[in-house]
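## retry 2 of 3
previous attempt timed out at serialization; input unchanged, resubmitting
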Amino acid sequence: MTGEARQPMTGGRKLEEVENHMEREILRMEVESRSSNEEFARVAVAVFMSRLDPTMEEIDDVKTAVSEAVTNAVIHGYQGKDGIIYIQVAIERQLLSVEIRDLGVGIRDVEKAMEPMYTTDTTGERSGMGFSFMEAFMDEVQVRSAPGQGTCVIMKKRIGR
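## retry succeeded, writing output
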């Protein structure tokens, strides 16, 4: 061997690419569209995010936002019928991303649905504050939806500012 510097073996990728890939961790899960799974989803996300050493306030914020998103999928997305809620949580450095997706009825007018106090509930049991709570407790909330195709809510929060 001559005096050449050798790159560590990384399966054809540069070491920097491998290190960047290792910094991102992902949890994926599917739960049945049942109200009882709302608590499971929020606790699972809280446990996964614990590796970021969040404050209790940050944990409570994320748990509340996840609860609202899962509840929306159960009540509005699937309208109490059987379905699957897809949850993906990603951690990259100090950024937590949570995606809650359903294949339910979808939202006809996302902008209107995100207005505080707007609800399609005719029973008077729902306040119409779900998206408002998500926006209040997370740094960023995006909603993608189409009638008959379901809804995807993506929420992000920087942990440990």
